[in-house]
Amino acid sequence: MHWTRRIFDHLIPQRRRESDVRLKISNLTRQTVLAERAEVADRGAKRRKGLLGRDGLGPGEGLWIVPCESVHTFGMRFAIDLVYVDRKLRVRKVRSGVPPWRLSACLSAHSVIELASGAARASRTEPGDTLEFSPTGPVAEKNSEAISPL
User: pTM of the predicted model, to two decimals?
Assistant: First the structure.
């Protein structure tokens, strides 16, 4: 079974997977928070669209694209931070303030977290750090276990 399926099967009831999923993303190494409310884009249209069409991300917001080893900001209206993560939820690469009309990749990553510009720096996240994902909102009330590295 794909490792992200295991995460979602463990944390999130089937009927809530599409649009309601929100995760808190913590940096265990630095004891900081990258995002309080990160959406999950783990299939089809949501992965392709990403943050396109939005005017920005609010404080504490983000988007976790799974799987993903490269992104573009063509057509975006704002700069973002990118945190590339491997299968063990270790940070492989961080790019801060990536402006519109750029490409970015990390071939050793399995997923990427898109954050408001400045969020990665504020959390002091660096390559080698270990992250943890835990549910927030209504899903958190049913299952509060966090996902740490495998």
Answer: 0.82
Domain count, the chain: 1
130: β partners: 90
* pLDDT > 60? residue 113: yes
Domain annotation covers residue 67: yes
Three-class SS of residue 67? coil
Q: What is the pLDDT of residues 63-112, one digit of tens each?
A: 999 999 999 999 999 999 999 999 999 999 999 999 999 999 999 999 99
Q: How far apart are alpha carbons 122 and 83 in whole angstroms?
A: 13
Domain of 26: which CATH number? 2.60.120.1140
Full domain range(s) for residue 74: 3-14+21-142
Q: What length does the chain have?
A: 150
Specify the DSSP class assigned to residue 130: B
**Residue 150: inside a domain:** no
